[in-house]
Please model this.
Amino acid sequence: MSLIITPRMSEKTYALVAAENTYVFNVPLGANKIEVKKEVESLYSVRVEGVKIVRMIGKTKQSNKKRSRPTIGKRSDFKKAYVTVKKGQTIPVFTTPEEEKK
Model:
């Protein structure tokens, strides 16, 4: 089974990469730790030491449009996977432009 995983790019993610060698990905709601580990190892050719998964509940938002009643909607739920890679290995998607020039 091939999972579609996408990297999450944010300041917090880059801080985790620098401090703990941990990368963050968006994964499907049905994915588990074993599937995520196998997929990351096959896609990026790295050794995964650990995976933590967090299920994020979508926020409820209110929309106010002119001349109509306020409507309430909900953002979709999603999962995040925190993947810790073996020390000394990196995933090239998360490198900054300054690191690529060196």
Remarks:
- Residues 33-44 form the longest helix (12 residues).
- Strands lie at 6-7, 22-27, 48-56, 60-63, 71-74, 78-85.
- The domain at 6-87 is CATH 3.30.70.330 (Alpha-Beta Plaits).
- The chain is about 25% helix and 30% strand.
